[in-house]
């Protein structure tokens, strides 16, 4: 059995619920110093790296500050805190549905990212929960799109995260979503949508391509009125944007979607007017550590359905 590589504990504390950046120097390289590697790796410029080193902001194991002359050592670990972006606060509550010694289940609002990524760092569900609950080692077992609301499962202890992530990997967890989209009386439902979905790095929208299906979604009609319908969606796989792509292919794109059927660009920071009408409604699973059967339901409602007079089927695809 291959031994898992040793990762030393971080010598820096979290900041605003966000972990420091950890970098491991490659096993081979032509850099004379660790500083030279960081200049190449981070593309931040000599002045930025030199300033961080001069202020002792980059440290090695045990919290020892890196010096400009420190030799390049293959496999060396370094840590530093990224500069936090100026983030627009998401003005909606993040509700805790359930908490025990192993897991936290949260009901995430629209527009709040699940984990730090890109320009969303401290203003994320993970960072908020770490701060609010005093759980610095909390981790996400899976993710929801920033624009999707609903249930997210977090783990309290890092050593237990793999057991819960396996529920999603091995499809041992039941997930149901709710969406509001145009009503098409000619669309025969229920049905199972199957396709091969490709999401390319740097491209905002995913697309369907020829080949063996890697995305399967069960689509049911819950109810309809005034040209809109509420759909029940059960994903059997977990491809990026799967539900949004399948609903668009069926000719009923989810309301408030800035990518499908037409890419209108990312939702501007601070624009909370038209949330994507997609909700992760339920999570159901047997706890892999305690054996307890869990079923959780979101307490949120989709605005287009509860206030449908302010929405119309013609707004599908508009942010």
Explain what this protein looks like in three dimensions:
With 319 residues, the protein is of the alpha+beta class. It has 2 domains: 60 residues, no CATH class; 210 residues, Pseudouridine synthase, CATH 3.30.2350.10. 15% of the residues lie in helices and 25% in strands. It contains 6 helices and 13 strands. Strands 3, 4, 5, 6, 7, 8, 9, 10, 11, 12 and 13 form an 11-stranded mixed sheet that branches. A two-stranded antiparallel sheet has the order 1-2. Strand 10 and strand 11 form a beta hairpin. The longest helix is centred in the first third of the chain and has 9 residues. It is elongated, with a radius of gyration of 22 Å. The termini are far apart. The model has no long low-confidence stretch (mean pLDDT 91).
């Amino acid at each position: 059995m291959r031994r898992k590589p040793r990762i030393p504990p971080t010598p820096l504390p979290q900041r605003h619920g966000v972990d420091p950046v950890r970098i491991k120097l490659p096993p081979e390289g032509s850099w004379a110093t660790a500083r030279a590697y960081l200049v190449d790796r981070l593309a931040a410029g000599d002045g930025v790296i030199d300033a961080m080193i001069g202020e002792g902001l980059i440290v090695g194991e045990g919290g020892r500050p890196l010096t400009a002359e420190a030799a390049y050592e293959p496999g060396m670990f370094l840590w530093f805190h990224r500069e936090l972006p100026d983030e627009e606060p998401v003005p909606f509550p993040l509700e805790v549905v359930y908490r025990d010694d192993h897991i936290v289940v949260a009901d995430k609002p629209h527009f709040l990212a699940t984990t730090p990524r890109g320009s969303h760092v401290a203003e994320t569900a993970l960072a908020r929960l770490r701060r609010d609950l005093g759980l610095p080692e909390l981790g996400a077992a899976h993710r929801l799109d920033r624009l999707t609301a609903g249930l997210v499962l977090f783990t309290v202890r890092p050593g237990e995260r793999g057991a819960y992530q396996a529920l999603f990997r091995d499809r041992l967890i039941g997930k149901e979503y709710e969406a509001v989209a145009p009503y098409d009386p000619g669309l025969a439902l229920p049905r199972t949508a199957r396709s091969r979905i490709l999401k390319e790095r740097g491209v905002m929208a995913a697309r369907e391509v020829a080949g063996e299906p890697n995305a399967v979604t069960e689509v049911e009609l819950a109810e309809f009125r005034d040209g809109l319908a509420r759909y029940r969606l059960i994903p059997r796989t977990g491809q990026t944007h799967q539900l949004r792509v399948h609903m668009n292919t069926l000719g009923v794109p989810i309301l408030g979607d800035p990518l499908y059927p037409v890419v209108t660009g990312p939702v501007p920071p601070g624009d909370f007017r038209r949330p994507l009408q997609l909700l992760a409604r339920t999570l159901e699973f047997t706890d892999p550590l305690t054996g307890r059967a869990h079923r959780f339901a979101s307490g949120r409602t989709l605005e287009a359905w509860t206030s449908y007079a302010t929405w119309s089927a013609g707004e599908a695809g508009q942010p």
